[in-house]
């Protein structure tokens, strides 16, 4: 291939053309072939977790190497397990009572926007969903994840070649720019946008179907009947995982007022540092949100100890999270916002209903539509919180940060992309799954008898 031709096939238009050609070849793959392709991209991440986790942490300069290794292993296994045995090719459903059949068909070329916070597992997840449904996929890497994305594209293409499938089912943009990402989104058939709100908004404005995510700001409430030590342990796990980068990580925890001090002591026992003095809490606020504005890039994805060193807090060695009491709710305190580092706000409540109302106020400020966590042994309280809070996920008695995106401990769909519904200006309110990336043809046969022979019967 001459140099001019080489440049042409690497342009956005060239990549989309190659992707479409590959997808057209794959469009009539069997269920077994689609499953083999999806399994391959998950398995290669599982097999190379020890290499990919540190690479992601090094290139993005965000998060924990060890946690990223764990994420590579766990998510790859969970996502393949959730896909295994599911129908996504041909006739997937026969509705005998309605005399209908449903036929799954691919959408075409998927544009996947890769976030810096999850540069390995998100591409894997989206590629598995796309291949499961006989689509092709093109990645638009984050500027801080170019090496990771290029490596993954190469690994996925190698696995596809081993199976005899077109390698161009997986491609990636060579140039990282807002212009090229925008062009890709306008030329693709469907978009999966995981990342900052600017890119998500651009995806929804592209003129193509888009599956984007909303802002996270997970509110958590500890009920009076919850075991404080157990709740503290799970909250610390969720808040500290991958150095607090996960959008599902607990952000503000509401505690019964008479148990507030006991809860703080339990958190301290388990690696929490409580910035009890007002001047220390103010230093935390200013360090994370300078001038009350956007979050400082200098603290995003750092360990609790490094966050403390960055903003001038003296914390004990081994500190896992930093805790401060919010002085107000919602817009009244920046600590009630999403904090992409292991920092947790706490606040006491009176009645359970008052505590839930406080969660609602914080969600109205930021994070509406995403998720809440609740530690309770009273089903009526769990249901009350679920009814009152405009969120897509209610995570009960688990670390929200590590289980809301699917876990062996619950029934949430295993994914890396979390819809927030209309509350978060999103087109869907669940966990992204393979069935979001397929069209369905519905075939309807006539009933043997009309179920409404007389229009007047409709009003009886």
TrEMBL record:
Tell me the InterPro entries matching this sequence.
Ald_DH/histidinol_DH, Ald_DH_C, Ald_DH_N, Aldehyde_DH_dom
What enzyme class is recorded for this protein? oxidoreductase
Give the record's keywords alphabetically.
Oxidoreductase
- MF annotations from Gene Ontology: succinate-semialdehyde dehydrogenase [NAD(P)+] activity
Q: What is its EC number?
A: 1.2.1.16
Query: What positions does the domain Aldehyde dehydrogenase occupy?
Result: 6-269
Name the domain of life.
Bacteria
* Keyword Oxidoreductase in annotation: yes
CDD domains given in the database record = ALDH_F20_ACDH (cd07122)
Quote the PANTHER family the UniProt record gives. Answer: ALDEHYDE DEHYDROGENASE-RELATED
What this protein is called in its record is: Succinate-semialdehyde dehydrogenase
This protein's species is [Clostridium] hylemonae DSM 15053
